């Protein structure tokens, strides 16, 4: 399978099976905006839930937050986002007028028509809006470009209300917006996206130690959720390419079909944010560890993942295409088969309940009973339409780890067949033991 082909295949699967749709499609689409369909939203929610569990519940000293998307514009002045710090260099072709990010270009000529390019000019990425009925300078506000600023705004509130022991962390998941010059590669680079960020506040002298610790933790999270080791690597960002707030940055890269690309950044932000917000707001954001020590600005280690980019990586990593078809007990096929080997925790649907054949009311009745019993516990589908092999393949294609088949033996022995998506092995399980069995496999 050619690399370009893989991307097209994933986009086609996403549309065909209801993972991701182009936004505003009936109006011809709206560039770089995507909608998550019924399976896509389940997958994304599962990714967010795994991240949230890992970064809050499994930790002793990290708590969550959900701050506003639109905040005081003064925040973005203090953070450096409204100045040259958060701007890309834009060039335009003098002939075809297409615009490009200068650092993405390999040559000095237009990649579309070979025309001459203009001199680069700075282009700020903040998305502007107006708050209130009058559209004047006083009502200008911005959609947040990163979720972490909401965390810094609430750093003292959280520290005081949650009585956290230092060092501690605050985690947040939410939308962020950037007016990207060249959004591209499906959901990889869009103007509206979701971030999952954790900010770790520590002593300045411990910052490097925690940087390495969190980088290791974050890599492990991907491995635990099944990303293949050979498809992940890290990139130490050279000093001259660091973002305006960063003292050190390491990107976690995934091997997409269009190259090694960043899906997460781990940053040492030093005291950039807290000291600048103190200066601009006039509020004291220094932290005190007790009488005998001078108050200080905690240094911040940030882990920042794109929910959409990581979802894209999980999909690419899980995708398998078996050209001659995989062997089935019930039906062999020469058709192409697609299997998504997603980690069970991430699969949008965990279980499919399938009566062996449709026109036997006793089987349908039993299958519906099993479906009702499991429904409160798992994301589940019931499917009675078509040959059983075809129904298995429909589930394989969306990554459902278990298919339960109700057959005539079920009526006699009160057991059923559990088929494993990856091994295609089938085992008989008593219906009375089913919930325990499935919990042990999926959770
Ligand atoms: P890039 O260099 O690709 O523009 P960045 O280094 O500016 O990314 P960060 O500011 O470190 O990105 O943001 C942290 C994470 O947020 C990124 O690793 C990525 O997963 C996600 N992210 C950033 N920009 C976008 C975007 N335009 N579309 C989708 N996800 C994004």
TrEMBL record:
Annotated substrate binding sites: 101, 146, 193-197, 302-306
Reactions listed under catalytic activity: tRNA(Gly) + glycine + ATP = glycyl-tRNA(Gly) + AMP + diphosphate
GO cellular component: cytoplasm; extracellular exosome; microvesicle
Keywords (A to Z) from UniProt: Aminoacyl-tRNA synthetase, ATP-binding, Cytoplasm, Ligase, Nucleotide-binding, Protein biosynthesis
Residue ranges annotated for the Aminoacyl-transfer RNA synthetases class-II family profile domain, each copy included: 8-348
Its EC number(s): 6.1.1.14
GO BP: any one term: glycyl-tRNA aminoacylation
Binding site for ATP: 178-180, 262-263, 306-309
Class in the EC hierarchy, top level: ligase
Protein's job: Catalyzes the attachment of glycine to tRNA(Gly).
Complex formation: Homodimer.
UniProt-listed HAMAP family: Gly_tRNA_synth_B
Protein name (Swiss-Prot/TrEMBL): Glycine--tRNA ligase
Organism of provenance: bacterium (Candidatus Gribaldobacteria) CG_4_10_14_0_8_um_filter_33_9
The gene coding this protein: glyQS
């Amino acid at each position: 399978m050619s690399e370009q082909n893989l991307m097209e295949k994933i986009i086609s699967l996403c549309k065909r099976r209801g993972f991701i749709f182009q936004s505003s499609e009936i109006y011809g689409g709206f560039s770089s905006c995507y909608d998550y369909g019924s399976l896509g939203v389940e997958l994304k929610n599962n990714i967010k839930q795994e991240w949230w569990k890992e970064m809050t519940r499994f930790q002793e000293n990290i708590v969550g937050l959900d701050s506003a998307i639109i905040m005081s514009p003064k925040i973005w002045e203090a953070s450096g986002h409204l100045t040259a710090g958060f701007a890309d260099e834009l060039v335009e072709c003098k002939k075809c007028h297409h615009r490009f990010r200068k650092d993405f270009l390999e040559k000095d000529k237009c990649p579309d028509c070979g025309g001459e390019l203009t001199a680069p000019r700075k282009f700020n990425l903040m998305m502007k809006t107006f708050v209130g009925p009058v559209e004047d300078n006083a009502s200008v506000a911005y959609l947040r470009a990163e979720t972490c600023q909401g965390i810094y705004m609430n750093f003292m509130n959280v520290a005081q209300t949650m009585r956290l022991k230092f060092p501690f962390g605050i985690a947040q998941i939410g939308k962020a917006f950037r007016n990207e010059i060249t959004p591209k590669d499906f959901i990889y680079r869009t103007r509206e996206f979701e971030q999952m960020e954790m900010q770790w506040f520590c002593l300045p002298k411990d910052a490097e130690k925690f940087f390495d610790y969190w980088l290791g933790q974050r890599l492990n999270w991907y491995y635990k959720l099944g990303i293949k080791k050979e498809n992940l690597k890290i990139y130490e960002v050279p000093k001259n390419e660091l973002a305006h707030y960063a003292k050190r940055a390491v990107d976690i890269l995934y091997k997409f079909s269009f190259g090694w690309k960043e899906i997460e950044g781990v940053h040492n932000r030093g005291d950039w944010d807290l000291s600048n917000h103190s200066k601009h707001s006039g509020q004291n954001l220094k932290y005190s560890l007790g009488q005998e020590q001078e108050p200080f600005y905690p240094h911040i280690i940030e882990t920042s993942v794109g929910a959409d980019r990581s979802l894209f990586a999980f999909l690419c990593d899980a995708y398998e295409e078996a050209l001659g078809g995989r062997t089935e007990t019930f039906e062999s096929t020469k058709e192409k088969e697609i299997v998504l080997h997603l980690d069970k925790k991430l699969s949008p649907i965990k279980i499919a309940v399938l009566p062996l054949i449709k026109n036997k009311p006793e089987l349908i009745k039993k299958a519906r009973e099993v479906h009702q019993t499991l429904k409160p516990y798992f994301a589940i589908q019931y499917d009675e339409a078509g040959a059983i092999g075809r129904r298995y393949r429909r589930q394989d294609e969306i990554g459902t780890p278990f298919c339960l088949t109700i057959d005539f033996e079920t009526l006699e022995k009160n057991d059923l067949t559990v088929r494993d998506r990856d091994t295609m092995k089938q085992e008989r399980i008593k219906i009375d033991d089913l919930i325990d069995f499935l919990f042990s496999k999926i959770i």
